[in-house]
Amino acid sequence: MTLQYTDHELTMHGHKLTDIAREYGTPLFVYDETMIRKQCHRFQQALKASGLNYTISYASKAFSSVQLFNLMAEEHMGLDVVSEGELYTALQSNVAPDRIHFHGNNKTDSEILYAIESGVEYFVIDSLDEIARIDRLATRQVKAVLRINPGVEAHTHEFIQTGQEDSKFGLSIKKGLALEGVRRIEAADHIDFMGVHFHIGSQIFESTGTVETVKLVIQWLNENNIHIQVLNIGGGFSIKYTDDDVSYPIEEGIKTITDAIKSACQTHDYPVPELSLEPGRSIVGEAGITLYEVGTIKEIKDTNYYVSIDGGMSDHIRTALYDAKYEVRLVNREEPHDKMMTIAGKLCESGDIIRRDIELPASIQRGDLLAVLSTGAYHYSMSSNYNQMLKPAVVFVTEEQVRPVIKRQTLAQLIQNDII
Ligand code: LLP
């Protein structure tokens, strides 16, 4: 990240964040566009080095915007979408429909029809009933991969684990449902079986779980004589929120995973499939920060020191939801971090906290600007209008320019669907 103090003020690619905040207002999401592109390149280079055929789809749930999707098109990335809304947004961008994969554990009939009409590359089928529904609704051949549940527990927050046995996602290998799914897709009139998909969880910082899963899946495919073109291993690669975290070592990790695929295929004399990845957080997470303006400061003697900012859980839900932790920087001055405080949001809920117990400069006062780091993934996309808060604006920054990609919501938009 090209975030640094220049002349005692925080800058991104040399642009002063105070100037950006003055122009676009706060709260504001600011992305390092160069870093997003670099993350795409890192995955591509690592996969290229493996010699495997591959595709990469950015998991659009991490942050959906037309401009971001246009950037993905420029970087030769496909997209993974999970709803009519994500597909609609994707179709407004330059990403070719045949680079879009349609996910979801409860696709509606209208979503299925919309995806077929739009010409998405394939469906990621998530249940047995979906097979019959797609087959019935399709008037021409469509492609699908089957999401299987390998029963492997990723070591991450339980709410973002997805591959454990009782997950709502996929069809269990161990319970025989995955095999049943493959056979039903193979027997379907209008569905071409392309392969299998798994995603064992999110914010996973090492490759052991994926390697274990890859071995188990290839053995299972071979034992059951299932032929696939595509092995989609989902996303889930970690990012650094604080010093307690590690960013997934992309080059090393992808090498470990692709070596495991090659060796498992060799062991079973099984043809090496094309590999597909769906990274979301690792593409945009560390590239994004949120800028807030400091308002009320409240000292509760011997108990807490609350610094409240002009946003909160409406644009930053992950602390309340997952007890996530973030680094915070004072933007407009560079000073030693010498006072313990809690950064709180302005919404009507005690759990509306951005960061509890963090050391920041004691001089922080009303009107100062704070930057919360690593908020590029699952912040804007999980934002809400709770307390009728407005969704913030989003800007992309490179060395050359600062460009708006999403405008701040307006008060009129808040009630545009109200019947008045
Ligand atoms: N593919 C599939 C099938 C997924 O379910 C997910 C995330 C991804 C790819 C992308 O995972 P990533 O690379 O971004 O970790 N709201 C939570 C994260 C939920 C992720 C759900 N699925 C959070 O804020 O941490």
Automatic annotation (TrEMBL):
Its EC number is 4.1.1.20. GO terms for molecular function: diaminopimelate decarboxylase activity; pyridoxal phosphate binding. It is an enzyme of class 4 (lyase). The modification N6-(pyridoxal phosphate)lysine is found at residue 61. Residues 35-284 form the Orn/DAP/Arg decarboxylase 2 N-terminal domain. Pyridoxal 5'-phosphate binds at residues 236, 278-281, 378. Its cofactor is pyridoxal 5'-phosphate. The keyword Transport does not apply. Residues 29-376 form the Orn/DAP/Arg decarboxylase 2 C-terminal domain. GO terms for biological process: lysine biosynthetic process via diaminopimelate. Specifically catalyzes the decarboxylation of meso-diaminopimelate (meso-DAP) to L-lysine. Belongs to the Orn/Lys/Arg decarboxylase class-II family. LysA subfamily. NCBIfam families: lysA. This is Diaminopimelate decarboxylase. The lineage of its organism: Bacteria, Bacillati, Bacillota, Bacilli, Bacillales. The gene is lysA.
